[in-house]
Amino acid sequence: MASASRGKEYSLAVKIAGSVASSFNSAMGAAENRISGLGQIAKQAAAIASAAWGALKIGEFVTDSVQAAVDFESAMADVAKVVDGLRDENGNLTDTYYAMSDSIVQMSKNIPMAAEDLAAITASAGTAGIAAEELTTFTETAAKMGVAFDTTAEQAGDWMAKWRTSFTMSQEEVTALADQINYLSNNSASTASEISTIVTAVGPLGDVAGISAAQIAALGSTMVGVGVQQDVAATGIRKLATTMVAGSSATKAQATVLQQLGLDATEMAQRMQTDAE
Prior knowledge:
This protein is mostly helical. Helix content is 79%, strand content 0%. The chain has 12 helices and no strands. The longest helix is centred in the N-terminal third of the chain and has 81 residues, at 2-82.
């Protein structure tokens, strides 16, 4: 009886084991299939998410591009308001306008500055009275000068516009002055911004005294280089210039000092016009 009972138990155990094994294998197989299915779903979801992200980025790019185009057209409209020849008698944009617009767009591809910002400089230059045929050159120089002088293109453009007026310069002459200032800053303890500020502050007084813009820049660079503040340097150069050309208007004290140096105030004023340096 005991043997028969153990046999039944063994047989039952085998059956249970077989059922468990079968059931376990089936469960594992189903789980693997489920995992595999989830993997496929995950891959599909990732692909969809990637596509959606790409679409979002494309959408943002398109939106930004459209906005940039709108901003540029708005800036160019300001240019057309202040520059003659960009609209005809009927208010329509001219070929000159489109040529200038194309030049500014092309410029933005070669200079790290948005076309809208370049157009804003052009508008400011037009307001300052810069001739239409010189505007694109002026804008390009301002942008490059801003980078070289470690300042904004707007500031560079403002300096150039004032130099043109103060020293009666052409754009080519202004560009040459900017090169001279850049050279001085690279070879002295003064910055291009400091020198430019001094040249602008002294302005037409230098011309009255027979001192060129380049000479003012050199004087300013020298003074700042030895520790003189730029506003003090500008004031000093203006005072020097006005005193040396005072002539018959020189004070008694000034005339006396010049006499002690063996100089005559009136003669000094005349000589300043021919050889100020």
